[in-house]
Amino acid sequence: MNLIYLYQDVVSWNNFVGNALNKEGLKELYINLVKEETTEIFDSIKSNDSVEFLDGVCDTLVVGSFLLAVKKQKDFKDYDLSFRKVNIEPSINYLKDLLNEDVFENIEKALSLVEDIGYSSGLNIELAFKEVMESNWSKFPLIDSVNPLNEVKYIENQGRYSNVRFERNIDLNGNERYIFKDGNGKVVKPSTFKEPKLKEFIPESFKIFK
């Protein structure tokens, strides 16, 4: 399993939306995102929801890897990626402890632990992570495919975000796309967003705790 190229893609995705590693406010934003996404892992345990578990693991790898990049002020070219078989339930409890103590200080340990949890689950975390990143890139419609003002109305009408604005940028393939952000600078989903299809990566026989 190789996650490094996906971590690099996370950094590229953030560069595309204007999140350079030294940008002011990213530390606080991504600390909150790590708390938010790990909560999905914890909630999936209570409900025994395997799709939510996989989604939470992948989303935590996304936001956790970028928070680590912000902390280290570098990408993942020299990242030491190794996996250990762990018992998932006590590892989940240890993850809670790490994040309750200090998310930023413990992000490297926490990210490594989530890698091990994903690896030990037996699910194909790499393919699921790739699906999530493809979904994340779908947040940026081509400029000739939507009316940006209509998209702002669509997003705000969902009731979750306010003060939505849009920007334009060129992706790695030379395509000009819209980026939509809320008043806090968080990238939000326009109507063209495609949810990741994670259920196909989970066998019917899968159990979070074996």
Q: What is the count of distinct domains? A: 2
**Cα shape:** globular
By helix and strand content, what is the structural category? Answer: mainly alpha
Q: Could you state the oligomeric state of the chains shown? A: single chain
Mean pLDDT: 93
Number of strands: 2
Topology pattern, helix = H, strand = E: HHHHHHHEE
- The stretches of 5 or more residues where confidence is low (pLDDT under 50) are none
Evaluate the radius of gyration.
17 Å
Q: Explain this structure to me?
A:
With 210 residues, the chain is mainly alpha-helical. It has 2 domains: 4-137, no CATH class; 139-191, no CATH class. It is 52% helix and 6% strand. It is built from 7 helices and 2 strands. The protein has helices at 4-16, 26-47, 50-72, 88-101, 107-121, 125-137, 148-157; strands at residues 165-170, 176-181. A two-stranded antiparallel sheet has the order 1-2. A hairpin with a 5-residue loop joins strand 1 (165-170) and strand 2. Helix 3 (50-72) crosses helix 6. It starts with a helix and ends in a 29-residue tail after the last strand. The relative contact order is 0.16. The model has no long low-confidence stretch (mean pLDDT 93).
